[in-house]
Amino acid sequence: MNYEFNKVKFNSLITNHMFKMFVDKNLSITLVRCLLVLSALTVYSCKELDVEKTNFSKTQKVDEIIKRIKLPIIGSEVIAITDMGAIGDGLANCKPAISKAIAEISAKGGGKVVFPKGDYFCEGPIHLESNINLHFEEGSTLTFSQNADDYLPVQLVRWEGVELYNYSPYIYADNKTDIAITGKGKLNGSAIGGIAEWRTKQKPAQNKSRQMGTDLVPVEERIFGKDNYLRMSFIQLMNCSNILIEDITIENVPFWVIHPTYSNNITIRNVEINSTRINNDGIDLDSCYDALVENCKFNAGDDAIAIKSGRDQDAWRVNKSSKDIVVRNCLAENVLHGMAFGSEMSGGIENIYVENFFMKNVKKYAVQFKSNRDRGSYIRDVFIDGVFIDTTSTAVFFTNDYHSYRGGKSPSDFSDIEIKNLTCNFAYGKAIDVQGLSSKPIRNLKFENIIINKEMDLSTVKNTTDGSYKNVQIHKEESDFSN
């Protein structure tokens, strides 16, 4: 099918952020890329670019990853939680009914646990079994309690890159296969007071957890939970495979929102996240592989999407990288950062493919790579093609000297990173800020077809080797690209 570029319609889409029109299944990746390039040529009236008439150079690799990803196989049984005694009045505790439905359907080989239209209240976490789909019908809302004791006993988690035992995440699974969370309903973490305010109290336990990780204290001795004030991830799936999270809306969460850890065969699509507290990352893929994130929308207090792989010595012990991940056709409306890599990346990050990421208001860094002198390991083979940014402080940011390092003897290696077809309307800080270490320069960093319409501060690219900058247009009189 042939598509004709319509400048007026395109500008309207960007202005009104009508995201669904960009991710309609009838629009190909190539079309959206063309729209990005055409926007650079028409909206900003910049000089003509020498754009290669080729598809995304890593298309074959992307296709291979997506073909490998297995969707969950769910049994045919269906149980509505209302059949187990749940009342959708927003007041009655539905946790017993939810747990009973999961147990019964699991005993029958798996199936769908349905939340019909209604307002449901859950005092405590939901623990998933294999072959289960939690399905939220349109008009359903599940709200979780904020009584911390409801989330005991403690469970094994990875918290800010360190393995430990903490309060249970709100939705949790460990060593399960074929699990799904789907439907047009809403999940609410009730992040008003209570657990949501723990950040002001977490520092002693946070420091203790990091020291335990550094000292390689046996994991079974790393017991936190009560009176330690470590906020829980909302959805944390540990050591799981064949995961689908689709169509749901998540709001008002105290900490990280969707947090797969040590998991594979992950599909997250058509998910909307509205949670704007501090540390509210939308999706954290943590030492995961074979994952697809697409058509998701973010209003988040921190990173929209972050690729992570653990912190320092504890992650070296685990030795699991994040790799073979595809992110495409997503929208960040209001976030602190857009697409982030690190800073917990000590297991390594590699083979990441990002296509067509639309960002409206990014308060700090639209594309961010960060580590420090303790993390070690690497970020390599990252390919970003197609980023449209309305406003941000800095469009692209790199550092392997992030704050809070503990000794500084293991700097991370960044190499073979390509960013192309990025346009930004206004960067009110630096357009591009690359700060490599003189002792560990960033290697083979490539920028191509970059248009920053306006920057307020001087762009810098320092301590890099073997980089290239093709068709980089920053609309300020002077920028410093010295190595």
Automatic annotation (TrEMBL):
| Keyword presence, Transmembrane | no
Keyword field contains Hydrolase:
yes
Q: Which GO terms describe its biological process?
A: carbohydrate metabolic process
Keywords, A to Z, come to: Glycosidase, Hydrolase
Outline the extent of the Rhamnogalacturonase A/B/Epimerase-like pectate lyase domain: 80-134
Q: Which SMART domains match?
A: PbH1 (SM00710)
What start and end residues bound the annotated signal peptide?
none
Catalytic class of the enzyme = hydrolase
**A GO term, aspect molecular function:** polygalacturonase activity
What EC number(s) is this enzyme filed under?
Answer: 3.2.1.172
Q: Which family does it belong to?
A: Belongs to the glycosyl hydrolase 28 family.
Protein name from the UniProt record: Unsaturated rhamnogalacturonyl hydrolase
What is the protein's species of origin?
A: Flagellimonas maritima
